[in-house]
Write a structure and sequence with these properties.
The protein is mainly α. Helices cover 79% and strands 0% of the residues. It has nine helices and no strands. The protein is elongated.
Length: 251
């Protein structure tokens, strides 16, 4: 048993089952005498719901995920080659394939809107960044990915400058304002969702630490009680032996 094998099993589980399974795996490694592996297992982070949904894709829909990652690889290559025709076609495919894979991630997963947005964010990162693609392919994400660098986009062809009529300029201005308002709203929703999950995480960590300390206290008490029981059993055995000798001398 090695860390890759254990991680593969753990990150295939729903988040609600992860912690107990991780503790069981760490305990098994320790009992087998591999203390180093037990420590490494204990360090594995519980996945968020969105990370788990992406991990499911790698296991349950590997073909569709591979198609998306291939589009990303070809898109990055086309950008390096400065190929505008390939970039335009691959950008269109990117949208179609990303939407399809995103729908698969949402199936039977009960994702909240915020978690669904994190799934889309992770898939976009995997398309434009090779390192992110490798992490998504492995299916062992603990948290969603985000790419803030420059994303490949079609290279515009040079065209003669055209004077835009006023009404077109006004329409573009309105569209920009709507887009900015939509982004601001999405940002607020994402921040609210993050705050909610952060509070839930803090509460879960506090509960875990309290229960762990309670268990540790009970284990210490149990160890002391077992020691006292062993001492009592020893005194009982000595007393029985001495009583038996005394009875034999009477006979």
């Amino acid at each position: 048993m090695d860390l890759d094998e254990v991680a593969g099993r753990l990150y295939a589980l729903p988040p609600s089952e992860f912690t107990a399974a991780r503790e069981a795996e760490a305990r098994a490694a320790k009992e087998a005498g591999d203390v180093r592996l037990a420590r490494e297992i204990a360090k594995l982070r519980k996945p968020t719901v969105s990370a788990w949904a992406v991990n499911r894709l790698a296991r349950e829909h590997p073909g569709e995920l591979a198609e998306l990652l291939e589009v990303g690889e070809r898109l990055r290559a086309a950008w390096q080659e400065q190929n505008p025709d390939a970039l335009a076609e691959l950008t269109r495919r990117r949208g179609d394939v990303t939407a399809k894979v995103g729908r698969l991630a949402r199936q039977d997963s009960g994702l909240s809107p915020a978690a669904a947005a994190e799934v889309d964010q992770t898939l976009e990162a995997a398309v434009v960044d090779a390192d992110a693609a490798a992490q998504v392919r492995d299916g062992r994400l603990a948290k969603p990915l985000n790419y803030s660098g420059f994303a490949p986009a079609p290279i515009p062809r040079e065209r003669p400058a055209r004077r835009k009529p006023p009404e077109e300029k006004e329409q573009e201005a309105r569209q920009r304002e709507e887009a900015e308002a939509r982004k601001a709203k999405e940002r607020q929703e994402a921040e609210a969702a993050h705050k909610e999950w952060q509070e839930a995480l803090d509460a879960a960590l506090k509960e875990h630490d309290e229960r762990a300390e309670r268990v540790a206290r009970l284990e210490r008490k149990l160890a002391k009680a077992r020691k006292r029981l062993a001492e009592a059993e020893q005194r009982l055995e000595v007393t029985r032996r001495e009583e038996r000798h005394a009875r034999q001398r009477l006979g």
